[in-house]
Amino acid sequence: MVDITKENIKSLIDKAMENKEIKVYYQPKYDAITSKISGAEALARWVTKEGEVIPPYRFIPLLEELNLITELDWYMMKEVCAFLSEELQKGRNVVTVSVNVSRLHTQEEDYAKKLCDVVDGFGVPHSLVEIEITESALAADENNVIAFVKSINEAGFAVSIDDFGSGLSSLNFVKDVPAKVIKIDKSLLSSNCENEKERIVLESIFSFAHRLNMTTVAEGVETVEQLGFLRTCGCELIQGFLFAKPMPEEQFKMMIETADENEAPTEDILITQAPATATQLLLDVIFKRYPLIIMSNLSRNSFYMMAYENFSTTSCPSTGVYTELIVHGASTMHPDDQKLFTDTFDINDQLKAYAEGQRERMVVTRQLGDDGIYRRVQTTNYYVKNPSSDDVLAITLSRAVD
Ligand code: C2E
Ligand code: MG
Ligand code: MG
Questions:
Q1: C-alpha angle 99/188/293, rounded to 5°?
Q2: Which atom of ligand 1 is nearest to 55's Cα?
Q3: Are residues 177 and 319 in the same domain?
Q4: Within a domain: residue 151?
Q5: Top mutation candidate among 105, 131, 135, 219 for ligand 1, by most atoms within 8 Å of CB
Q6: How far, in Å, CA of 29 to CA of 49, rounded?
Q7: pLDDT tens for each residue of 366-386
């Protein structure tokens, strides 16, 4: 294992770059609606001659601390351009690649001009290169940064605010930085979108970004539940282990070559949504009458709570496995009604009934309220087919009837 210290890092990294041991790994970004590869992020890996793959956290923070990072960033930019140029010359499919740029570049004179020289030197269109700068770097020196981002923009490169939500930058500042893309930090997805406050924060960020006409990317997406919720927020691009991990160039090349056959798994737990605001308004209206609205994918045994006001003693999970939801629902009911409820909403029975033409199913049960009194609650499932797959979805509307 390589021992990296403040004293030896410069010579080690210089040699590693010279020997091309610093490799670009590519992590694809997927269109949240179509699940097609729509971009990628270039991430540095040091692959030693012995085959050890050293991740960036072992050398990038130290390079930043010692003011040595800009050289590595330029090396990465050149490697990415060389890759894009070769692929373009062979007439192959390419996608826009975003390259991480350290905050130290904001102090570099003529950064945008140097960037043009490098990219033009490889004959790569500027639209294929995007610059990622972390939120904390942007917040460090506001005036300087606005001019820096503006100059990159004017040169035809999109700028993306990386790790948004992890630092301290004010929303007002984001409004003034002419970045086109905002990458929502994975820490904002930490509770798997199951916590209502987390969802409110995310919804607000997406709404704010969309109103500023920014493209949104969610990074660190690991679960179907996160994906489902991000879609409802109108998130455009998804990057995360759920779809793909960062991979060596050869593997990425093959992936984009076969992109059409190689879509990310579309494990929809939701119908692909209309623009978030219209859907939200409609939902708000229905919610006035039905305090519980659930979208379930019966074919995949999953559900997601679209709107929820608790009317029983125990709170309900907001997303997860459908059969577990039914068991949970039954547990909040009068003992005499539990079997009726579990029989009515048995997943296989519903799928069979749908295949035979049934389009809705309703049941009234007694449910224990916070005050210890049973109330009659009507639960109706409406069945629809997911337009983008053959999955059978159920929309549950529930309300108290006395
Ligand atoms: P970043 O730019 O925010 O990159 C995203 C990081 O999240 C990557 O870590 C990626 O592997 C990781 N990630 C992606 N999807 C998931 C997921 O679903 N779950 C989890 N847990 N992680 C996920 P990586 O490659 O270790 O890079 C770490 C950081 O190092 C990057 O964060 C970036 O700030 C920095 N970095 C990497 N390459 C470069 C570079 O060439 N130049 C500069 N200046 N910084 C770089
Ligand atoms: Mg990044
Ligand atoms: Mg990031």
A1: 125
A2: 26
A3: no
A4: yes
A5: 219
A6: 30
A7: 998 878 889 999 999 999 997
Buried (b) or exposed (e) across 163-201, using 16+ Cβ within 10 A? bbbebebeeebbeebebbbbbbbbebbeebbbeeebbee
Which ligand lies nearest to the CA atom of residue 164 in the structure?
A: 3
Work out the end-to-end distance of the chain between its first and last CA atoms, rounded to an integer number of angstroms.
Answer: 70
pLDDT in tens, 34-77: 889 999 999 999 999 999 999 999 999 999 999 999 999 999 99
134 and 191 belong to one structural domain: yes
What is the structure's pLDDT at 261? 58
Q: State the residue range of the domain holding 346.
A: 290-400
Which tens digits make up the pLDDT trace of 16-36?
999 999 999 999 999 988 889
CB-side exposure of 384: number of CA atoms within 13 Å? 12
In-domain check, residue 35: yes
Q: Are residues 167 and 104 part of one domain? A: yes
- List the residue whose alpha carbon is closest to atom 16 of ligand 1: 220
Question: What is the pTM assigned to this prediction?
Answer: 0.73
Report the CATH number that the domain containing residue 331 is assigned in CATH.
Answer: 3.30.450.20
Query: CA 346, CA 298: separation in Å to the nearest integer?
Result: 10
Structure-token pair, residue 145: 């940064």
Q: Is the CB of 73 under 6 A from ligand 1?
A: yes
**Domain CATH code at residue 38:** 3.20.20.450
227 close to ligand 1 (CB < 6 Angstrom)? no
Residue identified by tokens 């929820």 is 308
